Amino acid sequence: MIKLNEQYEQFGISKRVYAYGEEILASLQERFRQIDEVAEYNQLKVIRAMQECNVSEACLLGTTGYGYNDLGRDTLEKVYAAFFHTEDALVRPQITCGTHALALALMSNLRPGDELLSPVGKPYDTLEEVIGIRPSKGSLKEYGISYRQVDLLPDGGFDYKGIRAAIGEHTRLVTIQRSKGYQTRPTLSVARIGELIRFIKDVRPDIICMVDNCYGEFVETIEPTDVGADMVVGSLIKNPGGGLAPIGGYIAGTKDCVENAAYRLTSPGLGKEVGASLGILSSFYEGLFLAPTVTANALKGAIFAANIYEKIGFSVVPNGSESRHDIIQAVTFGSPDGVIAFCQGIQAAASVDSFVTPEPWDMPGYDSQVIMAAGAFVSGSSIELSADGPIAPPYAVYFQGGLTFPHAKLGILKTLQNLIDRGIITSDFRKA
Ligand SMILES: *Cc1c(COP(=O)(O)O)cnc(C)c1O
User: Which of 118, 122, 187, 214 to mutate for ligand 1's pocket (most ligand atoms within 8 Å of CB)?
Assistant: First the structure.
């Protein structure tokens, strides 16, 4: 008999907290089996895309300088296009993060006088400055691109009447954020995104439908491009990098959308032809290969956390039993102390930087203080075990990642122990 609890005790996790976790886990076996099935399906999809594109050993090498004829880069972009069932893709280390990928997709596909519409409410915080909702140098607004937003209905549904009214002659692009980001609204399923796109295309077929796919990749067996999206955009230090990609972003979509983005990323005339991949392509390929199972591990961690905190009485989104469409778990603690104790617990479970204590700080791009726990092999990677929360009502923490489920489990048990040690939860697992 392996004495797992003794291992946990060395991390300061009591026998009772460990046993509580085991009880929750026992109830989740059927859901975990379903997640494994999705991972298996997506694993085969990824392998097939790589086989169809003739990925070879030579693709794993890189180029320098201008990067003309970079076989690995060009093939990887074909693999992404094959996986997402799109005409083309742009997958580059020169795209520095998710915000950059989204800004690139927007700025390259919109022209002065155009209007951008978000029919799903406020976009992710960092996009407020990209769009110019909060004034910023170089925003779309400064270039004469206007923005409109239609909020979700109180029940989380689409406000179809409002959306129809908001579509005008200048509406050029609709941005749909799949994941909830720093909000407590539900994440959109691919099927619901499909319904929304169908509605928009019915009103005006020439409107470009872009999906911010961050955190959603591989969670379902289909992607937004399978239900009509013209473009999906995401970060390689989230799901599709599988924890191995050290940087990067992707845009997959129609030939026209991707070409516009490439001309903006490098230069008009140069487009996709330049951009050396240096030596990191093997991490992009291997990361994509691992991404389906890594995403599954992160999902299991999210569900484990949801069930632990829901049972104690905290509000969790998604709840413990509903279906999942991204890897983020929100838990509302209602106090800064709860958010801080949770994040410090996640940090204490890290392999890297476990000895540091995260504190709230004024992070660029966010309009309140934020606390972030991330002891990651890739700095800031949120497919790795990580948690963050704005220090603002309703004092919710957003938890995500875990390259392996055992690591996610350790992190979550550590948060629970921390909350108990600080008197925020009682020793018989109730809200204090
Ligand atoms: C993470 C995220 C972004 C921004 O990505 P960064 O890599 O942090 O710049 C945008 N949208 C959503 C929904 C995200 O989750």
Answer: 214
